[in-house]
Amino acid sequence: MTATYPKAQNPLILQFHRLMDAFAKSDDERDFYLDRVEGFIIFADLDKGSEELDILEDEITKAEDRFCLLPKMTFFETKKFMEGFVNEKVYDIDTKEKLIDIIQSKEARENFLEFIYDHLTELEKWQQYYHERSRIRIIEWLRNREIQFVFEEDLELAKKVVEKLKENLFESKVSKELSTARDTLSAKAKTYYSNEALNPRPKRGRPPKQAQKVEIEPQLTADIYTKVPPSARPFLYLPDFTSSSVTFSAKFDTEAQLIASLRGSSRAKIDTKLEALSQRLESLQHLSSKLRDTSDFGIESEDKLIKAVNQGVEPGSGDASKVLGIAKGLLPKKKGQQKKADVQEIMEKKRKAGIKQVTPIKKGKKKE
After folding, report:
1. How far apart are CA 26 and CA 129, in angstroms?
2. pLDDT given at position 183
3. Could you give the C-alpha distances from 247 to 5, 115, 237, 255, 348, in angstroms and in order?
């Protein structure tokens, strides 16, 4: 580092999610730079004016030791990400074979994401895997450039304390509270240079009880930078963090845009069919519940049940008469009719009991 640059008095406070987003978007058409002095990110946006881009290029060329170009994600690295997930996290044989075929085909990155977002059981595993692998990749890159840093998402300091640390980054004399906070940052920064940072191991012992997962977005502090060159200010990369701001896609910047693109494909046709089927099932359940209620609570007259069954059927149609016939056939007979039928049945049994049925003797033909 050139002596003309001010020296930070504590490790740089970087936002991991912002770095992960920049690493995913960095390609042949988009350049991202990390400042070694204060930790801000510059995005060389080609939509800016050519004059502004030329001034930025001159600034970066003059200060090559200050700005670090973020690496481009090559096709080999992209493929390695996807293959690692399939081999380590996918257990269903059919799903694994399908994903392997997608990785070997054209537009593997986008087709891979489309398949993952259509299979919710694999989506959560993919997001966790992508987060963990990106973290290792970013930490390794920062270590190779010997940058002392901490991720703001990993800190357990109060929001006001972190903002004061950013404001007094280059001040040698600070209050006792900030001095203690700086010691905490220095101790935390050493953990990123340990072997476990690049090779995280699962914790030993009894696994914790499974509890409902609660996703809480980290409360990040405001961006405070005091040493940004005037030519680089229009190119500061300061996106607002949301849980859906980072995506593996090369076409879409956010997860919301990716999901919207998926809805415009064949998924819409599937949704309409499922919706029609669900409506039919709901109507059948509604009808069966009416029949069950009437049989359970004992309706006095058959007219009420016929009304319940016939509800929703157009009068005068053939379906209405069929429904009425089925309902009357299922209904028990009235009490008077039932008693009369029982008496006749008893009389018939008595009559049969009084007369013995004898099998008649059949005479055979005489032999001639």
Report:
1. 20
2. 95
3. 35, 14, 17, 6, 84
